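Section 4.2 – Deliverable D4.2 (structural model, holo form)

The reporting period included a commitment to supply a predicted holo structure for the target in complex with coenzyme A. Inputs used:
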Amino acid sequence: MTVLASALDTGGPEHLAHRAAMLEKLGALDAEHAKALAGGGEKYTARHRARGKLLARERIELLVDPDSPFLELSPLAAWGSSYPVGASLVTGIGVVEGVECLITANDPTVRGGASNPWTLKKALRANEIAYANRLPVISLVESGGADLPSQKEIFIPGGALFRDLTRLSAAGIPTVAVVFGNSTAGGAYVPGMSDHTVMIEDRSKVFLGGPPLVKMATGEESDDESLGGAAMHARVSGLADHYAVDEADAIRQARRIVARLNHRKAHPDPDPVTVEPPKYDAEELLGIVPGDLKTPFDPREVIARLVDGSDFDEFKPLYGSSLATGWARLHGYPVGILANAQGVLFSAESQKAAQFIQLANQRDIPLLFLHNTTGYMVGREYEQGGIIKHGAMMINAVSNSKVPHLSVLMGASYGAGHYGMCGRAYDPRFLFAWPSAKSAVMGPQQLAGVLSIVARASAAAKGQPYDDEADAGLRAMVEAQIESESLPAFLSGLLYDDGVIDPRDTRTVLGLCLSAIHTAPVEGARGGFGVFRM
Ligand code: COA
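Output (structure tokens):
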């Protein structure tokens, strides 16, 4: 019997308390997501509408197939910065004429859709996803180009946007640009570098320099239309492949372009009829992670609510039991799962992980990492037992693994454990966090405690007295700072994940990601790992 049993007491006080804590966090998160949806706010939205234009998300909604899901990515980008939440760009994966595409749309209600440093990071992340998964890119363009006050942060690295578009094209990944309004200067290279372009009568303005700049540069008198209007580009310059009469017509034409791409997935979709849902209710995922992450929880309770039929063939269940590893299917796709069970990673867990990752590579099976780790074990016994070389083995395996990786931060994700479990720097194809997640170099209390010990020793070395009262104040301040910097909205704002998701949506989100991933061939590494220290 490989169907997971559940020991969850869903009516018990613990479950209800965990659920209440999670719902509170989800409520707070909704308020942050609402900021992204509000874009530039009422005034600019009303002005945009009065001009007869659709909002960024409305354009996307018309572009994707009716009733199909749109997996929005990085919605909290720029959270905690001086720029509006969402970074004036919407990105995500949607299905157009049956083809999964990476869609980006400037939000012209936010500072004219101009790109700030977070817009750039978000756009580059979207390109990365398109490239790794071979997803056609559709850019819905309407932007004032570089956010001029922050130009020094975006001008030089921003060149990568044009480079990415042509590299996607060179790799046979189609790129389509639909220009709804301004696409000036650097923005002009989005249609310029794309395989297919659509422009709209009296709306698209695509030029390297607008009339004022031309006047300054050469003294020439000109106007928007003759410099970069859709009619000019369709009839004269040839930059527009398709001439649309309005926004709806442009979207219709973009859908026809995608329908004719002949873009085929490397792997056929699993037959949905054969996909068995989990045996337990996803609603129960709200009550598994304790409010206090120091309390351990069994990740098999999570796995049982994510995978097909709650069916999980555990690998080495009796060995390295602080990490659960095993095989399952998720929406019909095979996955190997690594899930932290007791928080700490010891030598046995690290070796087990390294072996498991190699097996997944031999079998071409994508890996799912479910994080709840405080890191690798410290202490004399463990150092002498070789925890560094065993942790290095796991990090070697995850770094050189070639199968697609998915990471979900459920709880703690601290220290090098975050790396071994395929944290952001290890290029998981997608990484999502639950509202309960926390990630930092170590826990806030530990970090504040380490700082205090170091300060005390430093004072002693100088023969100075140590102020215990000031120490308590410093510890509390550092703890609060690290706590706030470890929270999911903060990390999502920095683009360290692809979004903070409701635990109940995890199976759906991972299913959409696995489907997108299988557009590209799934091929594991056969060898090619670094030297494993034994
Ligand atoms: N950088 C920083 N802020 C910008 C910006 C840019 N590139 N483009 C627009 N904004 C700001 C405006 O200052 C304005 O701010 P405010 O409302 O606080 O005064 C807000 O965004 C809206 O701009 P507005 O001009 O009122 O909107 P619009 O829809 O009528 O026109 C543009 C939008 C993009 C056509 C117009 O703003 C424009 O031409 N911008 C400059 C384009 C450019 O030359 N960019 C350089 C590219 S490298």
